[in-house]
Amino acid sequence: MLPFIMSKYPLFSVISGTQKICLIILNQPLDKNYLHILWRKALLKACADGAANHLYEVTAGCHDSFLPDYISGDFDSITAEVKAFYADKGSKLIETADQDLTDFTKCLAVMLEKIKDQQLQVDTIVTLGGLAGRIDQIMASVETLHHALNMTQLPVLVIQGTSLAYLLRPGSHRLAVNTGLEGDWCGLIPVGGPCQTVTTGLKWNLNNQILKFGTLVSTSNSFEPTAPGKRRNLVTVTTDQPLLWTMAIQKNGE
Amino acid sequence: MDKEWVPLDCLLPSGTQKICLIILNQPLDKNYLHILWRKALLKACADGAANHLYEVTAGCHDSFLPDYISGDFDSITAEVKAFYADKGSKLIETADQDLTDFTKCLAVMLEKIKDQQLQVDTIVTLGGLAGRIDQIMASVETLHHALNMTQLPVLVIQGTSLAYLLRPGSHRLAVNTGLEGDWCGLIPVGGPCQTVTTGLKWNLISNLWIISDLWSFSVPLALGTVQRTHLETCLSRKPYAVFGP
Question: How far apart are the first and last CA of chain B?
């Protein structure tokens, strides 16, 4: 009997809506638009090591409005100048030396501790970066999402470019994809191992099939067509193992 | 023990591996293209890859005509399609919705290798490791399918990343070409892998089932990744080996 987790989770109300978020920025080129929207809403904001370099660069002229609560990592990527700048402005520098965990995982651990200490009511942890660059580091982001399942009940999203990634726990999920910010592709990736999966609301639904690398992986999927003017149906996904949900974010003008 | 294999031989001008080249729909690195094109017995584009090829070979299009372009042709521009068709590149429509453009392009490649009885050592793919996250994962999926489609190694290269899916068993990877960068990784994408390594900075040892914080292992598939940069390599000068159970 599957643990039955019903989560109505409007993915993009983080962008336009009501969710209370915390923000982690990873060491990747930073999208200014995403940054501005998310920063405004975030109760806590953190940079993982060299992410601070990107933040500094992208907030030229308004640095003081974008001071992270903390920067964590082993500080081998952040420049001395950027490190000194933010330290001087009050951002905490938290050295996390554990070689067995990635900067992302460690930054998340610190975030969760602060959420607990400050007794913050948080709905979602949003991460910018992590889905581009070195292929081993993209995979490491996915690894962090797996660890996150054991670290917190909070959903942890990763956003970069026009991609969003979100690891679904075993159980049932209801994803609302009606914000208007969703693009036209989505996918279900059984990264950790095979997943017995049922879906509704997708263009190509799964009917208790096993998603498994080498057999069947759902990529370049899309949403069930609806009549013009009608809202998209919910996407529902039931899985017996952690399953990576990926979807498109519509860029302005696309 | 297995023969030593050199993942980055294909990018060495003096490398000896005979290759075939697949180009995927991603920004195309001119340097990689030139080195690989020269060596490749067959060259193919998967759909919109042809747009990138056309763009990056402006002024010398005639020296870079793919043997074929395959896919459902929803990404290639009409102009580029007509250009290459006109120059003799075959257009091979592959409509199967259950397989990605990459997988289908690879299938066609293998068929041609067989038909033409070519001696090939490696299939090298440009692109596939950037862009949409579902399509990066789809590249990895193709590598899994490839294990059942051919015995030939299939590499994927983009930017400063290389990916290569190791079959169950033992592998000996020589990383001495001078093109290797300073990072590498083993990613159990299909599921857990019981793994033993030597020659890495942090080796995996196991008769144990290591469910580590980094990776969990128990089934024989692993993905190896190595960076290519212009910097000196920090890797051991001895070849290293990855052993399966």
Answer: 14
| Four-point Cα dihedral A7, A13, A19, A24, nearest 10 | 100
Q: Give the integer Cα–Cα distance in Å for A235 and A174.
A: 6
- What's the residue count for chain B? 245
Nearest-CA distance B149 → chain A (Å): 11
- CA-nearest residue of chain B to A188? B134
In a structure prediction context, what are the per-residue pLDDT tens digits for chain A, which is 254 residues long?
333 344 445 455 445 578 899 999 999 999 999 999 999 999 999 999 999 999 999 999 999 999 999 999 999 999 999 999 999 999 999 998 877 788 999 999 999 999 999 999 999 999 999 999 999 999 999 999 999 999 999 999 999 999 999 999 999 999 999 888 999 999 999 998 999 999 999 999 999 999 999 999 999 999 999 888 888 889 999 999 999 999 999 976 43
Identify the residue among B101, B133, B145, B213 best suited for mutation to test binding to A, counting A beta carbons within 10 A and taking the highest: B133
Angle of helix A32-41 versus helix A51-58 axis, rounded to 10: 100
| CB-based contact, A183 to chain B, within 8 Å | no
Please tell me the distance from the alpha carbon of residue A229 to that of residue A207, in angstroms, as a whole number: 28
